[in-house]
Amino acid sequence: MKMKRLYISLLLLALASTLLPGQAYEKLENYKGVKNVDSKSGTDVPVSFVVIYDNYVFKEGTKADWGFSVLVDGSDKKILFDTGTKPGIFESNLHKIGLDPSGIDLLVVSHEHLDHTGGITALVKMQTGIPVIMPVSLSETFKKRMVNLGLKPVMAEAPSEICRDIYTSGEFDYGIPEAALVIDTKKGLVVLTGCAHPGIVNMLTRIRKDFNKDIYLVCGGFHLMNKSEAETKAIIREMKNLGVEKCGATHCTGTKQIDIFRNSFGENFVELGTGNKVVIE
Fold first, then answer.
1. Could you give the CA distance from residue 251 to residue 56 in angstroms, rounded to a whole number?
2. Do residues 150 and 128 make contact, with C-beta atoms less than 8 angstroms apart?
């Protein structure tokens, strides 16, 4: 009887050890690729991204809603960055823009808030079994949900190469774990953000340091809705001091704040909105 109890105890201990949070998930580790980024590196072919989900409409027939999602093309893989909020709007916009979901190779999640992950249930009806790259500190509940939906969670903690000339920034953990998508181009880095909860200046400062390359363009949500005009202008000055040449502020940045960015960057402001395609050559 004692041997039986001992066997059961050891079996339970073994099972518990296999269920430690995050232990079963693949990790994305490719530091060499980041070290190869320099002033002369970057894609030799045009890279583009199409806005699928956004607070603002660009293409007639698509629908705006609170959330963000873009599809990045031009590398050896097509990358979906976030999925917006409502599955129906995500799927409808995808088709109205004329994008083929079966061509999506990877999903990159900036953070696990619903306005960036809600459309995943629509995605897996059209494309399943693909890796979903995410910050390592996202909740175990979210990670298990991705497995149950037929996706393959891949943890990203440090700046790492995802595919040719495209990287994750690595995790920023300032209360809300978040990561940006970084594209290495001849003109400089192109940075895509979800909500920039850690602070857009904090994120760009570290990306500039980690990749040791100037930032050419930053697009996405900057989460500045509660910032005053003076505070927003101060953030813009800091971004320009970091060498940011072009900017496309949208989603949770705030309508008034977006107008300030538009006026400040002038011809270097990039309009986004559902259905718009941005090409970097």
1. 8
2. yes
pLDDT (average), residues 246-250: 98
Which residues, listed in sequence order, are joined to residue 129 by a DSSP beta bridge? none
- The arithmetic mean of pLDDT across residues 201-205, rounded, is 97
The H or E element that residue 52 is part of is strand 47-53
Contacts of residue 175, defined as CB under 8 A and 6 or more positions apart, other chains included, come to 197, 198
Instruction: Give the rounded distance of the alpha carbon of 141 from its chain centre.
Output: 19
CATH number of the domain at 24-30+37-273, out of 3.40.50.300, 3.60.15.10, 2.40.30.10, 3.40.50.2300? 3.60.15.10
3-state secondary structure of 107: strand
What is the reported pTM?
0.90
Domain boundaries, the chain: 24-30+37-273
Cβ proximity of 107 and 172 under 8 Å = no
* d(C-alpha 168, C-alpha 186), whole Å: 18
pLDDT of residue 20: 44
Query: φ, ψ for residue 74 (rounded to 5)?
Result: 125, -10
